Amino acid sequence: NEYKSYLRTYDMGWKQKRKFLTSIEENPSDEKKQKVMEDRKEDMIEIPHVNICRSCCLRMRYRNASQDDVLQWYKEDNSEVIEKVLAELGGDVVLVGEGMGEPMLVVGDEIQSVPAKCCYFCAGLLQSLDMLSHYIAGQLSTYEIPCDGGFALALSQPQEFLVRPLLIGQGAMLPFKDALKWLLSNQLEGKLDKRQVRHPTFKDVTVDIRLRFTTSELTWLTEPPFNVNPNELHRTVKILQAINHSNGTNLRSYLRSPGYTLITSISICREPFYLGGRYCKLSRRISQTPWFVDDDKQMVDTSVEEVITGPLQRYLGTDDIRMHASGREDIDVRMLGNGRPFYLQVTGSRKIPTATKLSELQDEINKVHECVTIHSLRFVTQNDTDQVKNAQDSKEKEYQCVIKTETPITEDQLQQLNSIRNLVLEQKTPLRVLHRRSPLTRPKTIVSLSCRFLTESEIRTAVAQTTDTTNEDFEQMVKDNSHRLLVAHITSEGGTYIKEFVHGDFGRTVPNVGTLLGTSCDILQLDVAGVSLPWPPPSS
User: Fold this and answer.
1) Cβ distance 38 to 3 under 8 Å?
2) Average pLDDT estimate for 481-507
3) 330 an active-site residue?
């Protein structure tokens, strides 16, 4: 009994094991055999018979069955067919009987098989369809599936399910993957009252079933005469080629029973969907995206992305919402006018909002922060999002800024600026972004430029809002009003650095406003006044 309890299983086939045990019983004093048993005692486990379930018997008999055939014979009494299959397999393969206990158990977030109680060929999955479908239905209960939605099954299986039938000479077996998906989907349709779909969209949910054994049973394929590369044991073609060229090797001698524990991991996922809209930012203290240093210290109180995604995350039940915008403005730049186009990629959502609910969510977002507003929030397609991606550097954008000059400007100089059309710049990567962008020289076009002097009331407002001017300078600038403050309206090609166009960035942007006026210039305030992109599409 001690020998039977510790006999090594990955060195011998079932015939060799039986012969080895018989020889030990007949001659227990054989020193050589005793030594072998002692040396390998730690690697040996008990060898029961090979189990087979009712469904796998039918898979062997009906090897080319369709889905309708499988669903039909699963309901019928096939006792005679099963008996014939068992007779062909031999006495070492026995039918799994009732009263053996549950073949699969739920352990935490996984389902684990009990090898001694499981069918060797399906690892207990076809025995446990009721338990499996009930478990999946419970997981899906937290997901909202629209009336026109459904579910899809995705199954990832190890190669043991391909090799195990080959070990007993049953290579032409109905594929395990097909049988499991057909039978499981039939039960889920009844429990969920939803249809199975082959090509899921964001309205559907996908049940991702991943199977793996705790230890691979196929290490013998890496040895002669098979010689499969260990890194290619996951490739079906390589395994079949090696077995076909094994020169008549008795595969049954490699039978391992009961096998290792099967771990079944089930996750629910949903295809991402996309929401498009436009946002306005009315503050010079809010960034577009979260701003961190050392991955944990936030430099600003909030961001446009956090304001927009917060209410959506709470309603949709997912943290995976990514915001993409057509360009970006600096933290001290406002986004005015009709707003900047953006879209959200929502992954793993548990709900699908209706058009009415989207309108309610938009109103809720607009109440989060007084300086961030959005409008035109609606569904868009993945193809639609290409418009936002491709428009960042191709579309025209409008800006308005307040410029301070070192010396007073005359009317003639102002008229000279206003006459500029389609001015081509040579912009080197600005120093302030050189740490994250390639050092290139990019040609950019100023389509039009319109300037005027600020009035006294505008000067007071502009100087009061900037942080670069001291209190002493404030009253002096208001008092003198010496034609040193301009407001400029600029239309430029997307991707133009407007700040650098004004002050020149130490000569890295030429020409610039300073060289055009013949005096040093600085920029006090900058706003984005418009982005010329029709977004979102009117009907998606």
Assistant:
1) no
2) 90
3) yes
